[in-house]
Amino acid sequence: MRRPIFLLTDFGYRDYYVAAMKAIILSINPGAEIVDITHNVAPWNISEGGFILWQIIPHLPKNSIIVGVVDPGVGTDRRNIIIETRNHFLIGPDNGLLYPAAHRDGLERVFEINIETHLYKHEISSTFHGRDIYAPTAAYLSKGVRVEELGRLINLNSIISQAWPNPEVKTDGLIAYVIHIDRFGNIITNVPGALYDKVADKIKSVKYSDKEIIVEKVTVFGEIKRRELGILIGSSEMLEIVGNMKSAAEILGGVKPGDRLILLFR
Amino acid sequence: MRRPIFLLTDFGYRDYYVAAMKAIILSINPGAEIVDITHNVAPWNISEGGFILWQIIPHLPKNSIIVGVVDPGVGTDRRNIIIETRNHFLIGPDNGLLYPAAHRDGLERVFEINIETHLYKHEISSTFHGRDIYAPTAAYLSKGVRVEELGRLINLNSIISQAWPNPEVKTDGLIAYVIHIDRFGNIITNVPGALYDKVADKIKSVKYSDKEIIVEKVTVFGEIKRRELGILIGSSEMLEIVGNMKSAAEILGGVKPGDRLILLFR
Amino acid sequence: MRRPIFLLTDFGYRDYYVAAMKAIILSINPGAEIVDITHNVAPWNISEGGFILWQIIPHLPKNSIIVGVVDPGVGTDRRNIIIETRNHFLIGPDNGLLYPAAHRDGLERVFEINIETHLYKHEISSTFHGRDIYAPTAAYLSKGVRVEELGRLINLNSIISQAWPNPEVKTDGLIAYVIHIDRFGNIITNVPGALYDKVADKIKSVKYSDKEIIVEKVTVFGEIKRRELGILIGSSEMLEIVGNMKSAAEILGGVKPGDRLILLFR
After folding, report:
1. B10, B14, B126: residue with CB nearest A219
2. What confidence category does residue A227 fall into, taking pLDDT thresholds of 50, 70 and 90?
3. Fewest C-beta atoms under 10 Å: which of A264, B203, B204, C255?
4. DSSP code of residue C132
5. Whole-structure pTM value
6. Phi, psi angle pair for B31, to nearest 5°
7. C38 and A15 in contact by Cβ < 8 A?
């Protein structure tokens, strides 16, 4: 069975870290197919990494292996885990990073990786588990080694979960939380498409800090004509606040992930 | 027939967008070979993306598939097209992005992609055609699906063309247009090698805004010794203004794509 | 024999340069397996590129081909070489870039590439040997062409070597040299693990310019609790000065590669 390996880390594109993981994977499984998700997760930002994994997972080919490494606790007593979901395996630290994606695909079983077997090196670096634990684990799974040989089953409910807050509907507006700002400055919020559909007619403006800007309800960027900002359901099926060839995050004065916005009703 | 897929976008390296395209391609054609051209085209900059495609196309293996996505009009009525050229297929929006490269390789036929067939998802995102239209189109072509099954033939002359201006030879100099600044600060102009050969002997200096700097005519960066700036025919066979381990764009005071320069005659 | 090709350059991720190399490789050897090490080496920084190759080489699968291009002297009389080491081939300019990695793996033979054969294009760009010389050389080697057909044997000792300075042990401290700052702001020094083990007990603080900061001796980032900075042996088995979810280079006031630090004894 073909099992492509998808990698997400906060290692960036300047160092040898990502290539070391790929080199280890290809040493163990020369035919492995490796695809980068991104390595530009903000350093140590588990929540941003978790959201990007959540975004990509519904699009992956069946039987993928996802390796996620955003791991400020590397080498401490946090566990190294493999999550088996309905369609895939996810590998990484037990710090919440893998949780939103795994939950979206359907959690089935969780294993704690056993590095005491002959499959792992004797000396494991205490600062680079991506290279010494997760890359070999992915390589073995991609080669057909059974997950039971790589770790021991642990309680599904014992792993660390992570979630973004729910939006709150008030009488005068919708309180939204900013999950992510993309390269174009689009503001991706925690408001799912279904909730937006219910309140869309009432929304008049977006308020961030002291700034209030009237928004246009659109379906594509190019429809924004009369106003600076539009709102639409983006490709991840979440409400996004967007500009037309301009950064919405900048128009609102520097919105960042984790910030709160109010979508004011008319 | 082996058909590698080359991708160029303005999606950057931080988001899930590029990986979503690759995941869709691998879902449809598990053996697909995918190569990144770049994803760092400046956001919405069709002209920069078009130039980079123009640069790469003569080097591609025969029978390549090029997917280009710089697409501020996504979801509006601009068409989704496949251009068949002498050696390759190009896929993307009909906004001029694909034109310079297609023209360089030799335009043969153009198809408008038909998303009404069973080959595409029922629900196509109005903001992410890279994932929902271009990636599947590339995957099907790479698998051997005939182009006629993916779209309907349209008039070759109906597509949007794009070109950089021609340089102008005046009595006292050559007016050049800046197409691109590369990572090293080399200034790539619209002056082709053949025109440069005719006037090279006469060129004395480069003038940008109020600044005039004498240039050395060289063939390699390391030959620049006496002056700060050199001119040479670069790897794309266009005139470049370059420094020796320094950014020519900075030496001249911040040259940007789209700017004009004068190469003054002695 | 499977020979994956690993690429390191200072070409960045915005231009067509890296893709041109990959396109040439795939034109010559359609089945080639290509892996990026990094293309974000600081422009023209041979010493940074050399260190990253030194870091990655012990992790590469046996029989890899490494192409390194950080090449300010492109087109001058510096030679184009292939170094055969115990396990791999390294290809690039003879300017010291390949030396530390080749030396680490064990130098065996060196060849000067002969571009006069039918294997190379008639017209070789004088500014882009990555595309016109190194990419085809890598592709031919990966296809099984013998190294003797690609170049002529030259004296092993004639190639340019490069090394970082040795640390100096003084009575009151250890003078260390900064080789690299990674994405997390970790400061990677020239102090090998073995030397650190001998003096670790004595180290009290790190001094950079006028700033002196007490350090904690740790084995993982997460152990740093009482102080701002820790020291540990990193994944490359060199002494690193690190923070806990903070950039050590910034805490010390902007440490850069090439700087000197003093690890003061108590």
Report:
1. B126
2. confident
3. B204
4. I
5. 0.96
6. -90, 5
7. yes
